[in-house]
């Protein structure tokens, strides 16, 4: 079925799927995964698919899943609260040094990033964590510690996770820090990260609990990663508490990183400047209670951003393409949501098979960033066309700023 700006998949035995994907390819596996989600008995109204939609673990990345009376931990995933933060500065392009290498090096030194290989017998410090966390980390952790201790009293296995020493760190994969220029030549700082090791531990623990509950009650599912926690059960209440805390950790993680990013830039650019002239900090892997179509429902955004009327959000492209600061239009059919990026067009394995370092060098020309075999899976061609993605969601958001990176730090 076609509507003015989106298509509707009618799902036998399930709710409809409304898809803002015109002009953007969608793999059949992703459609089948969306259908499985839509058949869950507690889906409210319909599932919304954003233009960056693609196959994911547990549920489809780029999907908005409204539920009544139940929550799917694997739909939220293990990078709980993953999202973006961006801040406009008073710096302009002419204030940046001709050689951007020292700027990138300063950022890499100030913010732990990446992950040490987990080889047999490895006991050293993960390079992606702090050895001795600096003061901003200590200050932020004091705001999180008491609630985390209470969560650990209920779930002791979480106590030994890498939490405090991951606060204010980037991670790996598609997480990044960028220095960008907007359409007027102003400098922006932008970063992408989530709840790091502790969010992974929380997500993994409750995903397994949900699967155990399904087995205990002999509940058959189209996909075991759609195991859910019914409202009113202990596991549900514990998960809501833990996932809420992990989302606060993720938001604070980005704020601390931004502080350290700004401080590192000041060591290279000595001209005084202000930041947060405009600022956005938004999740794109999370769950929260919202009111839609007259009911209070749980909305899980798996790779999607809240886009209420007037609300600012961030839609990044890739290492070599534009990113966008957007303002939501509050479209009720999308549950006030938009895409969280361009979306992958192929798997990391396929990208490494198909492209070379020379391809990566050409695709990131003009950007001070890593250009080696370990980041080929993040090559721009592994992602969908960001321009097509933006066109497909023109009734969900309007573009406020267009950003182009000049420095990119990858985990």
From TrEMBL:
Q: Which residues bind Mn(2+) 2?
A: 192, 284
The entry assigns this protein to a family as follows: Belongs to the RtcB family.
Q: What is the species of this protein? A: Noviherbaspirillum cavernae
Q: Name one GO biological process term.
A: RNA repair
Catalytic residue positions: 340
Q: What cofactor is needed?
A: Mn(2+)
One GO MF term on file is:
RNA ligase (GTP) activity
The domain of life for this entry's organism is Bacteria
Assembly information from the UniProt record:
Monomer.
Keywords annotated in UniProt:
GTP-binding, Ligase, Manganese, Metal-binding, Nucleotide-binding, RNA repair
Positions contributing to Mn(2+) 1 binding? 79, 175
Q: Does the keyword Nucleotide-binding apply?
A: yes
Cite the binding residues for GMP: 174-178, 284-285, 316-319, 323, 340-343, 410
- Entry-linked Pfam families: RtcB
> EC number(s) of the enzyme?
6.5.1.8
Q: What's the protein called, per UniProt?
A: 3'-phosphate/5'-hydroxy nucleic acid ligase
Disordered, as annotated region: 112-133
Do the record's keywords include Manganese?
A: yes
Comment on bound cofactor: Binds 2 manganese ions per subunit.
Enumerate the catalysed reactions: a 3'-end 3'-phospho-ribonucleotide-RNA + a 5'-end dephospho-ribonucleoside-RNA + GTP = a ribonucleotidyl-ribonucleotide-RNA + GMP + diphosphate; a 3'-end 2',3'-cyclophospho-ribonucleotide-RNA + a 5'-end dephospho-ribonucleoside-RNA + GTP + H2O = a ribonucleotidyl-ribonucleotide-RNA + GMP + diphosphate + H(+)
């Amino acid at each position: 079925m076609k509507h003015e700006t989106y298509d509707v998949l009618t799902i036998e035995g399930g709710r409809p799927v409304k898809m803002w994907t015109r002009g953007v390819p969608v793999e059949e596996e992703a459609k089948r995964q969306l259908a499985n989600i839509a058949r869950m008995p507690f889906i409210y109204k319909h599932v919304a698919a954003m233009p960056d939609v693609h196959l994911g673990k547990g549920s489809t990345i780029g999907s908005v899943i409204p539920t009544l009376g139940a929550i799917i931990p694997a739909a939220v995933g293990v990078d709980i609260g993953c999202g973006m933060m961006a801040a406009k500065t008073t710096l302009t392009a002419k204030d940046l040094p001709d050689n951007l290498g020292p700027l990138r090096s300063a950022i890499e030194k100030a913010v732990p990033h990446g992950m040490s290989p987990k080889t047999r017998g490895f006991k050293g410090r993960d390079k992606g964590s702090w050895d001795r966390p600096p003061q901003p980390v200590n200050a932020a952790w004091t705001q999180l510690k008491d609630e985390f201790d209470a969560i650990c009293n209920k779930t002791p296995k979480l106590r030994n996770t890498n939490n405090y020493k991951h606060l204010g760190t980037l991670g790996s994969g598609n997480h990044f820090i960028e220095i960008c220029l907007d359409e007027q030549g102003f400098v922006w700082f932008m970063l992408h990260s989530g709840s790091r090791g502790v969010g992974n531990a929380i997500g993994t623990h409750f995903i397994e609990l949900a699967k155990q509950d399904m087995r205990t009650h002999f509940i058959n599912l189209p996909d075991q990663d759609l195991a859910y926690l019914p409202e009113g059960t202990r596991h549900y209440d514990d998960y809501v508490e833990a996932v809420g805390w992990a989302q606060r950790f993720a938001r604070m993680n980005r704020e601390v990183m931004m502080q350290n990013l700004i401080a590192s830039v000041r060591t290279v650019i000595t001209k005084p400047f202000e930041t947060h002239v405009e600022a956005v900090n938004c999740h794109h892997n999370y769950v929260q209670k919202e009111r839609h179509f007259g009911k209070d429902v749980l909305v899980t955004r798996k790779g999607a951003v809240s886009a209420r009327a007037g609300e600012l959000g961030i839609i990044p492209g890739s290492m070599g393409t534009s990113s966008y600061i957007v303002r939501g239009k509050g479209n009720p059919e999308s549950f006030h949501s938009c895409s969280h990026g361009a979306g992958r067009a192929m798997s990391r394995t396929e990208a490494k098979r198909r492209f070379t370092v020379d391809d990566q060098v050409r695709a990131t020309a003009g950007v001070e960033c890593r250009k080696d075999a370990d980041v080929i899976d993040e090559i721009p061609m592994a992602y969908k066309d960001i321009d097509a993605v933006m066109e497909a969601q023109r009734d969900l958001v309007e573009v406020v700023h267009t950003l182009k990176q000049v420095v990119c730090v990858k985990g």
